[in-house]
Design brief:
alpha/beta; two-stranded parallel ribbon; 8 helices; about 45% helix; globular; binds nicotinamide-adenine-dinucleotide
Amino acid sequence: MSFKNKVAIVTGAGQGIGFEICSQLAKKGAHVILNDLDETLAKQAAKKISDNQHANCIAMAGDSGDIHFIQQMVEAGVSQFGHLDIAIANAGITLFGDFFTYPAESFFNVMRVNLGGSFFLAQAAANQMKKQEDGGSVLLTSSVTGHQAHKDLAAYGMSKAALEMLAKNLVIELSKYKININTVAPGATLTKRTLDDPEYSKIWSQITPMGRPATVTDIANTALFLVSEKAKHITGQSIIVDGGWTSISPSPF
Ligand SMILES: NC(=O)c1ccc[n+]([C@@H]2O[C@H](COP(=O)([O-])OP(=O)(O)OC[C@H]3O[C@@H](n4cnc5c(N)ncnc54)[C@H](O)[C@@H]3O)[C@@H](O)[C@H]2O)c1
């Protein structure tokens, strides 16, 4: 898969899955706008990728849930590199909490970042791609929790399920402009946050049919495929990357 001279925006990419997606895209020739809310993290991540891959990776620190900032990211991509080909809404916040006392503030934060950030990035990117008349790819980031109930994750799970419907719905609007839109749905994935917890890997290795949690590379490999030329005829779909976890239900045996 080559991404030579493709221009991509990836949100929430200072670390974790988004960082790995940016690294792989840059390694394969893409110019990347790397976003993170944390300015230091965004700058360090973009520098690391630019140095290691000899690539054009530009940091854009800001809130991926802010509609005006989303528009600025698209404009930055176009002014720096002339066009935009790929938009990946990766930023997502996970706010756990008991349903009976779940605070309205947490609910609206989850919806603003996970849903608003993805919806309006898709909108801004698709408007730019439509103008270019050369197609494009949008990828949203769902989760296994959009498919399977998880304790204390009602708002998050609901936001992830909604993203899968958004991808299906936008097939109507985007296909005539040769823009495909899909979602990747990671299962439990080892990131810095979860690597710090020695129990996390142990528990998920026991309950995952493939015997281990996902790595960021597992998720990035799938993300790159979905935004590559090889996946141009795939649209409105979600690929679950969870080592089989959502395929099984608790067994009596
Ligand atoms: N890690 C997992 O196990 C897992 C499983 C399923 C789905 N996901 C989804 O994958 C995506 C990436 O997850 P991750 O685990 O790599 O995340 P992470 O927590 O490792 O990193 C996310 C980055 O996003 C940034 N961020 C948070 N809010 C932001 C905002 N409003 N604007 C810009 N940046 C923001 C954070 O600063 C952080 O650097 C998320 O959408 C998440 O819901 C992750």
